[in-house]
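Example 319, ligand magnesium ion.
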Amino acid sequence: MTPDDRIYAYSAVLMGSPILLKLFEHDESLASRIFRLIKLQEITFTVNRPHSDIMAINHAAGRDPVTVSAPVFELIRRAKAISCLPDSSFNFTIGPLVKRWKIGFSGHSIPAAEDLQALLALTHPQDVILDESARSVFLQKAGMEIDLGAIAKGYIADVVRDALREAQVENALINLGGNVQTLGAGAEGAWGIGLKKPFADADTLIGVIGVTGKSVVTSGVYERYFELDGHCYHHILDPKTGYPLDNELLSVTIISQDSIDGDIWTTLLYGMGVEKSLAYLPQIPHIEAIFVTRDGQIIVSSQRQFTFTPLDDSYQITT
Ligand code: ADP
Ligand code: MG
Ligand code: MG
């Protein structure tokens, strides 16, 4: 029996992404329970369908505060706090810009500069008024839109991990389209998470990240983008300019305990770039990062919670 023979893989397409669940026991009913749980979370947090708690808030922008459930309020409170950090490249009120660009969806186009200026005025996180006692969320200006796309998958990955733990599962992996969360060590002493080669097909890897009970989140410019006149417009927008963030990075991977941190920090470090990130990371020891740059480097910040095995000689590895 090879180690992988002991692993049962279940898959589904949810939240517009392929979802993979790996268990060490054949348990169809647990797998469907987990997929139902993810679906429920999706219904709560998405902006890609007409009805969700988030859409209710967006529809009432400039008009009414909307009372939401405690978990939704908590996630929004967290998203606002990160968005309001000085120089933060994470902005959960980026919705109007995301909707205008439609990057990764049909109908994408480059907005006129003056359109971007007008939309930027609708993306101030301080204009989201939270009332703790009423548990309500109010977008002060008509046209404002919350988008939790940069944090929700991480949050949901942690919800799944907690549900698996509660079901006494000790060894499992959930992959929510790029957000991986694990319990235990897999079949070979650590779960091996592939680091994709930018712009290659999904199975081409440039390295493998080994983790035990940790989260691995990658955000790459090659995940959703469109090309026009030789320029690549990808889906992580710069809240200052309204254009896709432009620097030396092709992807940022975060290894952390909680996947929500991985999701948040991929966006924050993407905005900081390699040099600033490497200077900043020692202050947050629970967050570790792997950067892949346009000029073919893989830069590993530290390796306390994971191992990294390079698979592609054409990349220069810096540790
Ligand atoms: P993915 O997991 O799809 O790579 P990320 O976690 O990097 O995504 O989040 C990207 C998504 O977050 C975008 O598709 C958009 O919905 C939203 N978004 C884009 N730019 C920002 C930003 N600067 N801050 C917060 N959310 C953003
Ligand atoms: Mg993210
Ligand atoms: Mg993400």
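Summary: The mean pLDDT is 94.
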